[in-house]
Write a structure and sequence with these properties.
heterodimer; A: alpha+beta; 7-stranded mixed sheet; 6-stranded mixed sheet; B: alpha+beta; 5-stranded mixed sheet; about 35% helix; about 15% strand
Chain lengths: ~750, ~160
């Protein structure tokens, strides 16, 4: 298939195309610029040919800037393309995340692959189909509106035998037309591929060892590099004793550039041994805050800007008329991504260009960052994405990519850099610590008169998170910072008459931040929805009924009611009055979110068991109802929801990045434990499919319901309110003891 | 200096050149023999991504010195089956769509295979205990347990 595409492109681009050859895994492949606007300068999104090609055999190749992170998007996007063009699913191949050949569709983040990128592909495919139908109408002598495109043919709807194959209409030639933003997509009622649980195309290879992850990619003459990390985040490199690695066979070079220190060797084990053995002297640095005083530090951090995310009425005045004012402070610990496979990249220079093989979630952005850091133009850099280990946000892959580039240039040969577990846990950017103050005035019935909330979360400045290698090597003019759009969902999804939600975007946060599924939306929803539960308890009202007082969105109400129905929710206030004083207390809690207040709806019910003696929380069951509009692949959606629920149970109960004054100290799976099989909940999901609606994102929204659903369930079980994630046994036990 | 070590991998004998007898087996399997099944996850024996089966028992190849393997029979994920002819455990993972990123799946399949060989009719709790030292970050646990249950059923039936 690949060979076929390439030879076709060679024909297409017969006029002076620049051949960029490289070999991969032993098989030779050559890649040519695809369209007039493609190649080193990128791909023109305005042209249908930039998005898809139909070969002479009727198979289709779809080009997307979105990459596979383990979510199954390769399958889902292929379904959307196959449906819209009118070719069988198994005739579609995706090319993903190559900056020379795929359109820039932004990073693979924000639960936007189907919602935005899928819709861009759908529009290009609908344009292509319209062109095919026009040609078929001429060929068949009928009018275009009598025709349909399905299963690789254009046929007369009422006379299916009268047909012409799509391959014969375009196969092997370019469309040469712009994407028509008005091209009509297929009627969802006619869908036969979208909406089906088509098995994921990558799973057979992954289950048998035939898959090539980024970590498996090899290129000829490749050397192995490892980075030697400073003992403190901002330590300066004083001296390196290269003789300390002289006795290790296979060492090629010690690479030093300001504070960037690496070892390149002929084989991987030599690089590991060299990096461990290399003696270097570093300056001291202890600029991190004390972890015990982390949230005092956050509260006193300089505010870059205030974002007012919600405003209604006059909460400051209204709250003066309240019968009672409730207030609470919530915190959410810094987390690491914890991909099971540490980041990896290969860089190679050839013919004046740098090619970086990377599992980056954002190849087109990375291209600019690498170019900047290496003093090259973006046109001189090509990023080729290969799937890595699961990516839940901006982890270390981008950093490893620059590490490889720095070392490849230093040795004049391709270098593969594999981060260690310690690199990944210690040096990937972190989900930042979050602090939230909530205040509500209620009337004599406990109903909300005014809601006032403040959030302390880092700001974004200077673009995406800077590459750590650029910082170490002194190749940055200034650092940049981006924690994700953490302000989302600060505004509660309820119709309060007097409301103010303000996000204080902080100039700094102690550890280099980035987004982790789902940045801000999770932390903010946790605080809002746990506090909502406090208000319901204060009113002596059932937590679901209390939410329904303020919830007017019909789809929101539908999803909340679906979740409580499936969960078998008993209507009553919390805490559960029937607690019997047994050592294990049981409870249930609810949470609702409308993602970013504009899209996917999720409601969740968690059931917990709290061991009063040990403080241990078990979560035997979580029920979720989920409305993402049109569902592309129901089993794919289920897989995503189950995954993010389990992952977030782990984060809620266990996870916290630890650090001393100099650096991160949670550097492996013992010091940063995650959930194991015996602790995994049963997850029950109700999918609400709305085929007539647009498809919304799925990769993150459900994660957001977990922390507060658990906190609320613990309150239901014990009467104790957990306001600080993670809910580790020692913390829970101390809260139970305070209560007693 | 470099010496040649003979390994018995997936039923075939292979020679690898090794500078350091303490080098973990994983690097020989991946870098010398080009295998993709066993994966580097932590290098500490904590996550299970590198798991292989040696003489019927699961071994964390990232911390197993190559010099201690000797001529024992090493089985990797590739040694169980292929995409065209998967092993029943692999087939069960495919049938249950028990993969997200799949980086941990090598360890899950290998651990399950060795476990089911010794325990053909396990309870759900026993499966969870058997996999307790294999970490998954995508949260695929629920499907993985279902896949192991399916594999157990099908193997008993066969």
């Amino acid at each position: 298939m690949l060979q076929h595409q390439i030879s076709r492109r060679a024909v297409l681009k017969s006029g002076g195309a620049l051949v960029v050859g490289f070999t991969l895994g032993g098989s030779l492949s050559a890649v040519l610029p695809r369209t007039a606007a493609a190649g080193t300068a990128g791909v023109d999104k305005a042209l249908v040919d930039s998005w898809l090609e139909i070969a002479a055999d009727g198979s289709a190749t779809v080009y997307t800037g979105k990459v596979e992170l383990g979510t199954g998007v390769r399958t889902a996007l292929a379904q959307m393309a196959a449906e819209e063009i009118g070719v069988p699913f198994d005739k579609v191949t995706l090319v993903q995340g190559d900056t020379d050949t795929t359109p820039d569709q932004g990073g693979t983040w924000g639960s936007l692959s189907v919602e935005v990128a899928g819709m861009e592909i759908r529009q290009a495919a609908a344009t292509a189909r319209a062109a095919l139908v026009t040609r078929a109408a001429e060929r068949l002598g009928v009018s275009a509106d009598e025709l349909e495109a399905v299963d690789g043919v254009i046929r007369v709807k009422d006379e299916p035998g009268k047909q012409v194959s799509i391959a014969s209409l375009v196969g092997g030639e370019r469309f040469e037309i712009p994407v028509d933003p008005k091209a009509q997509a297929k009627d969802p009622k006619s869908h036969t591929i979208v909406g089906q649980s088509i098995p994921r195309v990558d799973i057979p290879d992954k289950a048998t060892g035939a898959y090539t992850y980024m970590q498996d990619v090899r290129v000829p003459d490749m050397l192995h590099g490892r980075v030697v990390r400073p003992p403190a985040l901002k330590a300066e490199l004083l001296d390196v004793d290269e003789s300390s690695v002289a006795g290790i066979p296979g060492i090629v070079k010690v690479v030093r550039e300001k504070n960037f220190l690496g070892v390149v060797a002929r084989n991987e084990w030599a690089a590991i041994r060299g990096a461990r053995a290399l003696k270097a002297r570093w300056s001291e640095w202890a600029g991190l805050p004390e972890q015990d005083k982390l949230y005092e530090h956050v509260r006193s951090s300089e505010i870059a800007e205030d974002l007012v995310m919600g405003e209604a009425g006059d909460p400051k005045t209204a709250i003066k008329g309240a019968t009672k004012v409730l207030s609470a402070t919530y915190t959410f610990a810094p987390h690491t991504h914890g991909s099971i496979g540490p980041s990896c990249a290969i860089a190679q220079f050839a013919d004046g260009r740098l090619t970086v093989h990377s599992a980056s979630q954002a190849p087109h952005f990375l291209r600019k960052q690498i170019a900047d850091a290496m003093g090259m133009t973006p046109e001189q850099v090509r990023i080729v994405n290969h799937e890595g280990s699961g990516c839940y946000g901006r982890n270390g892959h981008e950093d490893a990519s620059l590490d490889a580039a720095i070392m490849a240039r230093a040795v004049g040969q391709p270098v593969r850099v594999q981060w260690t577990r310690e690199d990944e846990h210690g040096w990937d950017p972190k989900g930042p610590p979050t602090l939230v103050d909530l205040r509500a005035g209620v009337d004599s019935r406990g109903h909300v008169i005014a809601w006032d909330s403040e959030f302390w979360e880092p700001t974004a400045r200077g673009g995406l998170p800077h590459l750590i290698g650029a910082e170490l090597a002194g190749r940055l003019e200034s650092t940049s910072q981006h924690p994700g759009n953490v302000q989302h969902n600060a505004n509660p999804p309820y119709g309060f008459a007097n409301l103010r939600s303000v996000v204080h975007r902080l100039q700094e946060t102690p550890l280099r931040p980035s987004w982790i599924r789902s940045p801000g939306r999770m932390q903010n929803t946790y605080a809002n929805e746990a506090f909502m539960d406090e208000l319901a308890a204060n009113a002596g009202e059932d937590p679901v009924n209390y939410r329904l007082r303020y919830l007017t969105d019909p789809r929101g109400i539908a999803v909340l009611m679906a979740a409580v129905r499936k969960a078998g929710w008993a209507t009553r206030p919390s805490p559960d009055p029937r607690q019997d004083g047994n050592s294990v207390a049981r409870g249930r809690g609810v949470t609702y979110i409308k993602y970013e207040n504009v899209r996917t709806y999720v409601a969740g019910v968690a059931e917990v068991e709290v061991d009063r003696n040990t403080g241990e929380i078990r979560v035997p069951r979580i029920v979720v109802a989920h409305d993402c509009g049109q569902i592309i692949n129901p089993d794919g959606v289920l897989n995503q929801i189950e995954g993010q629920i389990v992952q977030t149970v782990s984060r809620t109960l266990m996870e916290q990045v630890t650090f001393d004054r100099s650096r991160v100290t949670s550097l492996d799976w013992n010091s940063y434990p995650i959930l194991r099989f015996p602790q995994v909940p049963r997850v029950e999901v109700e999918l609400i499919n709305r085929p007539e609606e647009v498809p919304w994102g799925v990769g993150e929204p459900a994660a957001c319901v977990v922390p507060s659903a658990i906190a609320n369930a613990v309150f239901d079980a014990t009467g104790v309110r957990l306001r600080d994630v993670p809910f580790r046994p020692d913390y829970v036990k101390s809260m139970l003891e305070q209560q007693a | 200096m470099a010496r040649s070590i003979s390994l018995n991998v997936n039923g075939k004998t292979a020679q690898v050149q090794v500078d350091d007898p303490q080098m973990p087996l994983l690097y020989a399997l991946r870098d010398e023999l080009g295998l993709h099944g066993p994966r580097f996850g932590c290098g500490l024996g904590q996550c299970g991504a590198c798991t292989v089966i040696i003489d019927g028992k699961t071994v964390r190849s990232c911390i197993a010195p190559i010099s201690e393997v000797g001529d024992k029979a090493i089985t990797t994920l590739e040694g169980l089956g292929t995409p065209e002819r998967p092993h029943p455990v692999q087939q069960a993972f495919i049938d249950e769509q028990a993969v997200q990123c799949g980086y941990c799946i090598n360890g899950m399949v290998m651990e399950a295979k060795a476990f089911l060989d010794a325990n053909p009719d396990p309870s759900e709790d026993q499966i969870k205990e058997a996999l307790a030292d294999n970490l998954c970050r995508c949260g695929t646990h629920i499907r993985i347990v279902r896949a192991v249950q399916r594999a157990a059923r099908q193997t008993r039936r066969a």
